[in-house]
Amino acid sequence: MEGSLRYSVLAAPAIMASRHRSRRYVVDCDIPDHDLFPARYTALRQMDFGSCIDVPRLPRMLSLMSACVRKGWIEDWNFLSTIIQPCLKAVKFVGSPHSGFFMRLEGQDWEGNPKKMLFEILARDGSGLEIPVTPVILLVKKMLGGESLPAGAYPCMGLFSLAEFQEELSSYPISWGSKDVQ
């Protein structure tokens, strides 16, 4: 359930030392993909996206903050930005620099048969922060290489391949995979 506190078990590569657990809290994320994917992939019926973190008490705090926004009690948390950042730095040493992401997709395959997939990313040593900026890097490289892109603001879907994305991130300790699930 969106906003509820739950766990996910990351694949074995996420465990780098005995103190780093594969079982992590899941933080639900409200991302543009929730709107973009169904519009582009009409056979998609359900999508669940989560970020898995390992900093004690942070998932519970994020869950409570999310609930306050959903209920309309607080519209914007920016007024706490000067407090939140130092607090996160203070507890950084008790968690893990490794993060996970997963996306569960449910819909139909190309033949119209029911299909469920799980896509996971494991980012080690704080490298997860590279993932959201990589599309910008790819598009800037294309423009510097002489490719023209349409003018204006729009999603970058279809402007580069998954292979290009993976190649750009290949120097970071990031691994991913997908599999069919029941």
Q: What is the average of the pLDDT values? A: 81
Radius of gyration: 18 Å
Backbone shape: globular
Bin the strand percentage.
25-35%
Strand order of the largest sheet: 1-2-3-4-5-6
Low-confidence stretches: 12-20
Report the strand count: 6
Query: Multimeric state of these chains?
Result: single chain
End-to-end CA span: 19 Å
Can you summarize the main beta sheet?
Answer: 6 strands, antiparallel
- Secondary-structure-derived class: alpha+beta
Task: Determine the number of helices (DSSP H or I, runs of at least 4 residues).
Answer: 5
Q: H/E element string?
A: EEHEHHEEHHE
Tell me roughly what share of residues is in helical segments: 25-40%
Which features does this protein show?
5 helices; globular; alpha+beta
What does this structure look like?
- It is a single chain.
- It contains five helices and six strands; from the N terminus they run E-E-H-E-H-H-E-E-H-H-E.
- The protein is of the alpha+beta class.
- The chain has a domain of 91 residues.
- Strands 1-2-3-4-5-6 form a six-stranded antiparallel beta sheet.
- A hairpin with a 5-residue loop joins strand 4 and strand 5.
- About 5% of the residues have low confidence.
